[in-house]
Design goal:
mainly alpha, two-stranded antiparallel sheet, 21 helices, 77% helix
Length: 516
C-alpha cells in the first residue's frame, strides 16, 4: 500500500470510528418507540438533514455524476424530478403524515400506520407492506454496500487486486453500518445522518468548484475542455434537450427521469423522519432546510459530472463512470500529506452518503419485522425486549442478504437504486397519498393499489418478453406507469366496495382539526 493510500485510510478510519462512537452514545433506548422513532423528538435541523442524507445515498456522489459524465446534461432531468418530488413531499405529506400517525393509535411504522388508518384487524395490509419493505430494501441496501465497495476498490486497489479490494470494502462498509445501527437505533441513525449530511454537502460543493477552476485555468472554458477530451458535440453535451452525441433527448426519457419525483411519496426511510419530528413548527423549519440542501447538492452533483468530463486526465467509460467523484478527488488532492488527508475527508463524503441511506433502510426493515410482523402478527403478546431483539436480528439478516446481492463488482449503483425506488414509489406512494387526503378511501382499495404497484414493477423490470424486459425495450421507467396504474386500481376498487366506517372517517376528520 502506498503512502497516499495509507493517509486516506487513516481519514476513513477516523470517520468510521466517529460514527460508531455516535452509535454508542445513542444506545440508551427504553422501548421500541425510542429505538425505531426516537421518541418523536427530532428537531428541525436533524430531521431535515437526516431525511435528505438518507434519501440521496451513494448515487448522489456516484450514480448521478456518472450518468451526466457519460451522456451530458440531458441526464439532469433526473435531478429536476427529484427536486420536484422533495418539495412536494415536504409540503404535501410531512405535516399531515406526522399528525395522522399520532391520531392513528400512535403508529411507529408505515405498515402499522396503514393498519391503524383502515382499522385492519386481520393485519393483511401490514403484512403485505412489511414484505414489500423487506424485498425492496434488500435491493436498495445492496446499492449502498456496492457504493462502499467500489470506493475502496478504486482508492486502494489496482488492476491486479481490484476484485479483492471490492470484497474488503464491501465487508468493512457493511460491518460498520451494522455496528452503529444495531447499537443506537433511530437516534444513532439520525445523529450520524446529520453529520453525514453536512459532510456530503461540503464535499459535493467544493469538488466541482475546484474542478471548474482547473478547467478554466488549463483550457479557458468548459466547452474547450470538453472538445479536448473527445466530446463530439460540446453544445449538445451541455444542452438539456440533447445527449453527448448531439441527438435529441426523447420525450420518453424526459418523462421517465421526471417520474423519479413520484417515488418520494412511498419511501419508508424518508416518511419515517416526518413521523419523528417534534412539532408542527419544526416541520416548517425542516422543509426549508431540506429544500435548500437538495437544491445545492443536486445542482453541485450535476455540475460535477460536466466539469469532471473536461477535468479528468483519463476518459472513463460506461463500466467505471460511476467513479467520477472518486477520480476527481484523487486527481485534485495529490502531493503533500495535508492535501491527501483533505482528499481523504472529502472521499468520506461518499461513505457518508452510503451510510446515511443504508442505516436508515436497515432500521426501517427491522421495524417492519419486529413491530409489524413479529409483534403485530406472529406473537402479539411479545414483550418490548423480545420484539426489540427480533428487530436487531432482522437488521443483521437483511444486511447479509444485501451483502450477497452486492457481491457482483459489476452491479450498477444507479440500476439497483432505480429498481428499489420504483418498487416503493408504485406500491406505497398512491396508498400514502390517498390515505392522507381521501376520506372515502378504504381497506380493499389500499390492498389492491399496493399489490398492483409492487406486482407491476416486478413484471415491468424483471420479466423478459422476447428476450428483454418491457422496461428495456420501451425505455419507460416502471414507476411512471406503476404509480398511476396502482392509483387507478385503488380508486376503482374503493368506489366499488363498502365505504369505511364512521370510526375511520372520524379519525380522518380529527387530523384536520387536531394540533399535535
Amino acid at each position: 500500500m502506498t503512502e497516499k493510500q495509507i493517509i486516506i485510510l487513516v481519514a476513513f478510519g477516523a470517520y468510521m470510528l466517529m460514527m460508531i462512537l455516535i452509535g454508542a452514545l445513542s444506545s440508551k433506548n427504553k422501548n421500541n418507540e425510542d429505538y425505531f422513532l426516537g421518541g418523536r423528538g427530532l428537531g428541525s435541523w436533524t430531521a431535515a438533514l437526516s431525511a435528505q442524507a438518507s434519501d440521496m445515498s451513494g448515487w448522489l456522489l456516484m450514480g448521478l455524476p456518472g450518468a451526466i459524465y457519460l451522456a451530458g446534461t440531458g441526464e439532469v432531468w433526473i435531478a429536476i424530478g427529484l427536486f420536484i418530488g422533495t418539495v412536494l413531499n415536504w409540503y404535501l405529506v410531512a405535516r399531515r403524515l406526522r399528525k395522522y400517525t399520532i391520531v392513528a393509535n400512535n403508529s411507529l411504522t408505515i405498515p402499522s400506520f396503514f393498519e391503524n388508518r383502515f382499522h385492519d384487524k386481520k393485519g393483511i395490509l401490514k403484512i403485505a407492506a412489511s414484505l414489500i419493505i423487506i424485498v425492496f430494501f434488500a435491493v436498495y441496501t445492496a446499492s449502498a454496500f456496492s457504493s462502499g465497495a467500489k470506493l475502496f476498490a478504486n482508492v486502494f486497489g489496482s488492476a491486479d487486486n481490484a476484485d479483492t479490494m471490492y470484497l474488503i470494502g464491501l465487508t468493512i462498509a457493511s460491518v460498520v453500518i451494522l455496528v452503529y445501527t444495531f447499537m443506537g437505533g433511530f437516534k444513532a441513525v439520525c445523529y450520524t445522518d446529520f453529520v453525514q449530511g453536512i459532510l456530503m454537502l461540503i464535499a459535493i460543493l467544493a469538488v466541482p468548484i475546484i474542478a471548474y477552476v482547473g478547467i478554466t485555468g488549463d483550457y479557458g472554458s468548459v466547452t474547450a475542455s470538453l472538445s479536448a477530451k473527445g466530446v463530439a458535440d460540446p453544445a449538445g453535451y451541455l444542452s438539456l434537450m440533447k445527449d453527448s452525441e448531439g441527438n435529441p433527448i426523447t420525450a420518453v426519457s424526459i418523462i421517465s427521469n421526471l417520474g423519479w419525483a413520484l417515488g418520494y411519496f412511498g419511501m419508508p426511510h424518508i416518511l419515517i423522519r416526518f413521523m419523528a419530528i417534534k412539532s408542527d413548527a419544526e416541520v416548517k423549519k425542516s422543509r426549508v432546510i431540506a429544500i435548500v440542501w437538495v437544491i445545492l447538492s443536486l445542482g453541485a452533483a450535476s455540475l460535477l459530472g460536466v466539469f469532471a468530463r473536461g477535468f479528468l486526465a483519463e476518459v472513463l467509460d460506461g463500466t467505471n463512470s460511476e467513479t467520477v467523484f472518486i477520480k476527481t478527488i484523487l486527481q485534485i488532492f495529490d502531493g503533500n500529506f495535508v492535501l491527501i488527508f483533505i482528499g481523504g475527508i472529502f472521499l468520506c463524503g461518499i461513505l457518508a452518503a452510503i451510510m446515511s441511506t443504508a442505516d436508515s433502510q436497515l432500521l426501517v426493515t427491522a421495524s417492519a419485522v419486529s413491530e409489524d410482523m413479529y409483534k403485530g402478527a406472529i406473537n402479539k403478546k411479545a414483550s418490548e425486549k423480545n420484539a426489540l431483539l427480533v428487530g436487531k436480528i432482522a437488521v443483521v439478516a437483511v444486511a447479509i442478504v444485501a451483502y450477497i446481492i452486492a457481491l457482483d463488482p459489476n452491479s450498477s449503483i444507479m440500476g439497483l437504486v432505480s429498481n428499489a425506488w420504483a418498487g416503493f414509489g408504485a406500491a406505497f406512494g398512491p396508498v400514502v397519498l390517498l390515505s392522507l387526503f381521501w376520506k372515502r378511501f378504504n381497506l380493499p382499495g389500499a390492498v389492491a393499489g399496493m399489490a398492483t404497484g409492487a406486482a407491476f414493477v416486478i413484471f415491468w423490470d424483471y420479466i423478459k418478453i422476447g428476450g428483454e424486459t418491457l422496461g428495456s425495450s420501451t425505455g419507460l421507467y416502471s414507476l411512471v406507469i406503476g404509480f398511476f396504474l396502482a392509483a387507478l386500481v385503488a380508486v376503482v376498487v374503493t368506489l366499488c366496495t363498502k365505504a369505511p366506517s364512521k370510526e375511520i372517517t372520524d379519525d380522518f376528520e380529527k387530523v384536520n382539526t387536531v394540533e399535535i
